[in-house]
Amino acid sequence: MKKTIYVIAGPTATGKSDFSIKLAKKINGVIINSDSMQVYKNLQILTARPTTVETKNITHYMYGHIEGKERYNVDKWCNDAVDIIHQTSKNNFKPILVGGTGLYIDTLINGLIDIPPIPESIKKESEKIIREFGKDFLINQIKNCDPNSLKEVNVNDTVRIRRIWEIYESTGKKLSDWKLNKNKKFIENFNFKIFLFLPDRKKNYEIVNSRFINMINKGAVEEVKKLLALKLNTSLPVMRAHGVPEISKYLANEITLDECIEKGQQVTRNYVKRQHTWWNSSKLEIFKKFDKFPSEIDVNSIKFH
Question: Identical fold at 3-112+190-301 and 120-178?
């Protein structure tokens, strides 16, 4: 009989972490982080990582999992998550994946295009092109080498645009051609039950706005100051976490604190919008979908079978 992996998914700032703790207590579960930024040790406040008090009674995995100087990605996350899922399942704990990074969940279930790792030098080169010549220059280059892949991404999605270029530059093969290969699978013989929370977007925005101010009050500026002191490459994922570029500009006296807050709130709201769009268009099989916040749902009222 297949064991079950539970997934608590939805946009940021909806209260998934609190709900997952209640669920874990109910079903003898452990919580595994599936948020791409909460994996980094250097950012607790800005990523709203659960505190030691919140994680006291339920085992949490992969929060503050790696240093910001490392370049973590979906492939590494899937491998690490699978190890924990097998380990905890053997001990009769039920794994609960919690986070807003839909790509992680989708890849764990459906697999990943098996592309060789991209050298760090190529990643630095794509960053340099963006910085010195702009995004449109890179887009024009991609039009000449892999126009089909370009059609599948938003022109403002710099990360995915860079990846298309990097894959072709490092392998000599188009991303669209790599996609024709069979996906690399990470896990089998498990059922997935996805609990998706997509509450009112405007209310979600309001929470994002107030939460960012709360993060500033709790010490987010000091947190970013310590991160900047490490002098990490700006292309690293941790340096692109929501709030880091905005607070960095404030610390460099390029913008005021009020402007920093306004811009930080805006980029997070934009992210929430993208998350709503991603999940609404996702082909993943959703076990239960809620148009409410997790705090509005009584975990004891949910049937899990």
Answer: no
